[in-house]
Amino acid sequence: MTEYKNVLTEKKDNVLIVTIQREKALNALNDETVAELQQVFDAFSADADLRCAILTGAGPKAFVAGADITELSKLDVAGAVETAARGLKLAATIQNSPKPVIAAINGFALGGGCEIAMACDIRIASEKARLGQPEINLGIIPGYGGTQRLSRLVGRGKAMQMILGGDMINAAEAYRVGLVDEIYPPEELMDKAMEMATALAGKPPVAVTATKKAINDGLNMTLDDGCNLEKDIFSKLFATDDQTEGMAAFMERRKANFTGK
Ligand code: CAA
Fold this sequence. Notes:
Elements: E1 7-12, E2 15-20, H1 31-46, E3 52-57, E4 62-64, H2 69-72, H3 77-96, E5 101-105, E6 108-110, H4 112-119, E7 122-126, E8 130-132, H5 146-154, H6 156-165, E9 169-170, H7 171-176, E10 182-184, H8 189-201, H9 205-218, H10 223-236, H11 241-251
Parallel strand pairs: 2-3, 3-5, 4-6, 5-7, 6-8, 7-10
Antiparallel strand pairs: 1-2, 8-9
Helix pairs in contact: 1-3, 3-4, 4-5, 5-6, 9-10
The site of acetoacetyl-coenzyme A has 23 residues, from helix 2, strand 6 and helix 4.
């Protein structure tokens, strides 16, 4: 597998574990790390052997403590446009990947870290995790999609409170407001992530991709348009081998053998 400076990738069967490794800066996303993550997730999306990814941060303290403030502090307006564009592209690549990506939030997920976690399909967090969009305290706003994804996930009022206030919330509060989907003791987090990833990796891949598309594209549509999109995607699955196999296996009381066709 390709070696990266700030990102470690490991394959376990058909699951890819992606660990951001800049522990001395609490895994803050400098340009180099964003570029490496872009390569990692482009390759993941294109690799037919991989069915699910887990994204996490190295060390006990942080998932990602944000974009790298040392680099941000040197930007002018044109530089900020480019930095935001690169972060937004990475977030879109994760969200639009044909396969699920689980964020395993092992500690601070702040600013760009919270934003990249929100681009993942499912977020599970350590009980010690703390999440937030503290950009306001730096005189800016989120730039990797935070104003948009946070308000869609937790609603307008809570997003306003978090982004205007700039305070962190703990894992229990993040779970309560729907920002994370499960919370676990820190020592169990990666096992639980692996368990979830393995289960998702065993699902029929075409239907998995279809689910992501229906939910993600539908969220940008009216309810009627979203339901029409669902009808299109639902009906096309009836031309797949996995639909025939899934239903035959149910009726024959056996485990389905999905081929991804
Ligand atoms: N960028 C660069 N370096 C960072 C960083 C960041 N986002 N977050 C932490 N670090 C560095 C610190 O500078 C420190 O480095 P040194 O040891 O060389 O001094 C090291 O990581 C450890 O951090 P602290 O000593 O601050 O650790 P702490 O436990 O006292 O505090 C923290 C932890 C509360 C997370 C604090 O580090 C912090 O507030 N970090 C910044 C969080 C933030 O504002 N994130 C948003 C960035 S802007 C953004 O992300 C914009 C966007 O939307 C794209």
